[in-house]
Amino acid sequence: MSKPHILQVGPYPEWDEAPLNDAFTVHRYFDASDKESFLSSVGPEIRAIATRGELGAGRAMIEACPALELVSVYGVGFDAVDLAACRERGIRVTNTPDVLTNDVADLGVAMMLCLSRGMIGAESWVKDGSWAKKGLYPLKRRVWGRPAGVLGLGRIGYEVAKRLQGFDMDIAYSDVEAKPYASDWTFVADPVGLAERSDFLFVTLAASAATRHIVGSEVTSALGSEGMLINISRASNIDEDALLDALESGSLGCAALDVFEGEPALNPRFLALDNVLLQPHHASGTVETRKAMGQLVRDNLAAHFGGKPLLTPVL
Ligand code: 8YV
């Protein structure tokens, strides 16, 4: 039996490539120099798209594949997949929730600690000889016991809040409604109100049109000149120009960011700031989690082509 043809939008770790190529005839979009003519030549054969969270699949790609049945996303976020285009044609969509939750939460909390305690600068202090020449490293701010807010108490937000509990923090969260499983934490419906009572604000919202720029100048001002914003979700949840203005003026204390508009080509204004911790969108980037994500991408593809229920359907 001939193998189903799939379009691979971006590279995966090497351990995913062999099993993917064994099971499918894989067309590597990211290797094509002329993407448009590549799509018009292989598009008619494509029955599934295997993509990554941040790469997704836009309408033009979906429309270039008239026989498309499934988009399988390596990532929990599916905001870069044109769901309307998929719905119109009954195309199924899957993602990789759960398997990455704990690692993403870990990185968020690690960024908070790293930035608050000045660990990057402290390492330079050791390596460049400042410790010996200038003496003690400047004092930084404590984390434990301070008020923290979690904007979006889904799977990842919940795991962040659980970890913050270990630091005896005073935890509050915003979501569309109070969550029955969060009775230990304070519910604050309004993100500005949440920011007002928080020294650290984690953005853990699934991105959508409804959450676009939910963090803007009102939220950053409410967080204030001593506050820290931590984003491990999507850049679109934050008005990046407003964030940069706030960081440059000092109306927001600092920010720890794993995601950026137009990444990996981030706004150069970020690079000139010393009150940021910048990370290359790697919150799910552990060997263990990435192996589980790759397996789930393939399991969803196999379930679909085997006529079985999808494991983690979005649509
Ligand atoms: C990326 C992510 O998919 O889960 C998500 O939504 O953005 C990430 O896990 C990852 O960077 C791999 O490309």
What does the model show?
This protein has 315 residues and is α/β, with parallel strands linked by helices. The chain folds into 2 domains: 5-99 and 288-305, Rossmann fold, CATH 3.40.50.720; 101-278, NAD(P)-binding Rossmann-like Domain (Rossmann fold), CATH 3.40.50. 36% of the residues lie in helices and 16% in strands. The protein contains 12 helices and 12 strands. It has helices spanning 14-23, 35-42, 59-63, 83-88, 101-116, 119-127, 130-134, 155-165, 191-196, 217-223, 240-249, 287-305, and strands at residues 5-8, 25-28, 46-52, 70-74, 92-94, 147-151, 170-174, 186-187, 200-203, 228-231, 254-257, 276-278. A 7-stranded parallel sheet has the order 8-7-6-9-10-11-12. A 5-stranded parallel sheet has the order 2-1-3-4-5. Strand 1 (5-8), helix 1 and strand 2 (25-28) form a beta-alpha-beta unit. Helix 1 (14-23) packs parallel to helix 12 (287-305) and helix 5 crosses helix 8 (155-165). The longest helix has 19 residues, at 287-305. The radius of gyration is 21 Å and the shape is globular. The two termini are 28 Å apart. The mean pLDDT is 98. Bound molecules: 2-keto-D-gluconic acid. The site of 2-keto-D-gluconic acid (8YV) has 10 residues, from loops.
Assigned CATH class of the largest domain: Alpha Beta
| Helix count from the secondary structure assignment | 12
Q: In order across it, which strands form the biggest sheet?
A: 8-7-6-9-10-11-12
Structural class: alpha/beta
Number of strands: 12
- Please identify, by name, the CATH architecture of the largest domain: 3-Layer(aba) Sandwich
* Domain tally: 2
Largest sheet: 7 strands, parallel
Helicity, as a percent range: 25-40%
Q: Say what the CATH topology of the largest domain is.
A: Rossmann fold
GO molecular function, one term: glyoxylate reductase (NADPH) activity
Keywords: NAD, NADP, Oxidoreductase, Plasmid
Organism: Sinorhizobium sojae CCBAU 05684
Domain D-isomer specific 2-hydroxyacid dehydrogenase NAD-binding: 109-283
